[in-house]
Every structure is written in structure tokens, then in C-alpha cells.
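RECORD TYPE: inverse folding
INPUT: C-alpha cells
STRUCTURE:
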């Protein structure tokens, strides 16, 4: 399956060198089995479809629980990612970011073309 989940111990800089072409940043999963972020839940099925067996490979990274994400020192709010919202999908090539889709509306409108590019 081309959709993988990152180990929680992976260093944010190491993510630039993963073999997958896309990195998907989501909120963490709560005790009820759902992500706490409503925007992340809104795009979850669309993302699963885009990165299905016939799609490109992607790595899911969970940014933390709500309190961790809201903290300005969250590792993913810092370099090299400097995220400002989730969900965020980043396209990587040769260790460099070459494109980014953010929040649910951008992802809903642009994911199919973004994945094809």
C-alpha cells in the first residue's frame, strides 16, 4: 500500500530524505480512533483514494495532540517544515520541497492535480 505512517521518533529533518514522494501532516489520533482535527478528518478519505494502490507513495506524519500542535515550539512548526496549518501535504524531490497543499479547502480542490504533477 502506498500510504505509510511515520514512526513517532523520526527526526523532522530526516523526513526530507524519505523514499516517499509526498509527506502528509495530520493531527494525532485520539482515544476514539479519530484525528482531533476536523479539517484532517474532512480530507482523510480523499487522501486515501489519491494514494491508493495505483497512486504514488506517501508518508503520514502525526504532528501531535491539540496542545502539542498549538505550541509554538512544535517540531513541525519549526524548520525545515514551518507548518502553519494541518492538514498539509508536501511534495518532495531529491530532498527538497517542490510543492505544498494546505488546509482542507486547498487539498479538496487541488489534490488530484497535485499528485499527478
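DESIGNED SEQUENCE:
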Amino acid at each position: 500500500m502506498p500510504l505509510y505512517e511515520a514512526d513517532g521518533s523520526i527526526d523532522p529533518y530526516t523526513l526530507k530524505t524519505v523514499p516517499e514522494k509526498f509527506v502528509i501532516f495530520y493531527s494525532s489520533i485520539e482515544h476514539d480512533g479519530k484525528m482531533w482535527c476536523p479539517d484532517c478528518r474532512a480530507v482523510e478519505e480523499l487522501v486515501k483514494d489519491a494514494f491508493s494502490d495505483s497512486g504514488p507513495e506517501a508518508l503520514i506524519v502525526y504532528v501531535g495532540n491539540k496542545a502539542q500542535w498549538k505550541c509554538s515550539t512544535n517540531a513541525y512548526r519549526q524548520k525545515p517544515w514551518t507548518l502553519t496549518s494541518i492538514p498539509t501535504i508536501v511534495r518532495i524531490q531529491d530532498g527538497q520541497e517542490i510543492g505544498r497543499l494546505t488546509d482542507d479547502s486547498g487539498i479538496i480542490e487541488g489534490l488530484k492535480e497535485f499528485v499527478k504533477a
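NOTES: The chain has a mean pLDDT of 91.
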